[in-house]
Write a structure and sequence with these properties.
By secondary structure, the protein is α+β, with helices and mostly antiparallel strands. Helices cover 47% and strands 9% of the residues.
Length: 293
């Protein structure tokens, strides 16, 4: 008996095998399309969520906290809404709008903290921090407000920058409103030498700067910004990119060097409030404080 497969049977088997391969290819392409569509959908949803976060609460009346807007000691700028870090006469200004519950803000800070500190310490830039509370408006809770008030209380003691860094280094997951508890904010103050004092605790627990934070958030919403973090170098947006270049520590240094070409570094270090004192906190014209981190 011959061990050869009849030609007719072989052709039928080959056609069947080819058909199965074509079906496998179609199924693979179908699954790839489903996965790709899901990824695009997630990215689109993330973009929508970002816009919702940026616009949440636009009609909430802004400054709803009771009492006058008490600016922290050393706050500068229009309506005393700027928390300055670095030499006041630095040739360039880095403006940063942030929300302490914003995860992208934490990613930015953790990636660029050393670079920004280096540029500020060298007198290349003065950093102007502004605080917003968009995550509270989007997800509910009070963590953005409570953390911003605590940061303003740290500014009263000349310790805004290190406390600011501690908050972002210990940021809870976005849906977790852990910063809404004053006890947690006071606990984290223990990581900044000399900050956890009776005066700081009282400032945090009394919400001394709540109205000021609300006023800052209103300024953010009325400023036409798309979300946090918003990062401007001499008024030009550099996050997530500047022109065709993506932001990176190297590119940020390069952009600052180009902006400062032919200019002398700043040497006018900001004044520091007396240790443990909050006097003058309500004076918008108080001298600049908050030493570099």
């Amino acid at each position: 008996m011959s061990d050869k497969i009849p030609e007719g049977n072989r052709s039928a088997r080959e056609r069947l095998a080819q058909q199965r391969e074509r079906e496998k290819g179609r199924e693979k392409r179908r699954r790839t399309l489903i996965v790709a569509s899901a990824v695009v959908g997630v990215l689109a949803l993330a973009a929508v969520v970002g816009l919702i976060a940026a616009n949440a609460g636009k009609d909430d009346g802004g400054d709803t906290a009771s009492g006058p807007a008490i600016a922290p000691s050393g706050a500068t700028g229009e309506a005393a809404l700027t928390l300055p870090v670095g030499a006041a006469d630095a040739p360039s200004t880095l403006t940063i709008w942030e929300d302490f519950r914003c995860p992208v803000c934490a990613q930015f800070e953790n990636a660029f903290r050393d670079t920004i500190k280096e540029l500020a310490d060298e007198g290349q830039v003065k950093v102007e921090y502004h605080l917003a509370t968009i995550i509270d408006g989007n997800l509910g809770g009070t963590g953005s407000l409570r953390a911003a008030n605590a940061a303003a209380c740290a500014q009263d003691d000349g310790k805004f920058a290190p406390y600011h860094d501690v908050l972002f280094s210990n940021q809870p997951p976005e849906p977790d409103d852990a910063f809404g508890k004053n006890s947690r904010l006071i606990e984290l103050a223990g990581k900044v030498e000399g900050l956890d004092t009776p005066g700081f605790r009282s400032c945090v627990e009394d919400g001394e700067h709540d109205s000021w934070v609300k006023k800052s958030d209103t300024a953010f919403r009325e400023g036409g910004f798309q979300g946090t973090p918003t990062v401007l170098l001499n008024g030009e947006s550099v996050f997530p990119s500047k022109g065709d270049e993506q932001i990176s520590p190297e590119n940020l240094k390069k952009w600052v060097a180009a902006a400062n070409k032919g200019k002398k570094p700043g040497t006018d270090a900001p004044a520091t409030p007396e240790e443990g004192s909050s006097e003058g906190a309500s004076d918008p014209a108080a001298p600049s404080s908050a030493p570099g981190s």
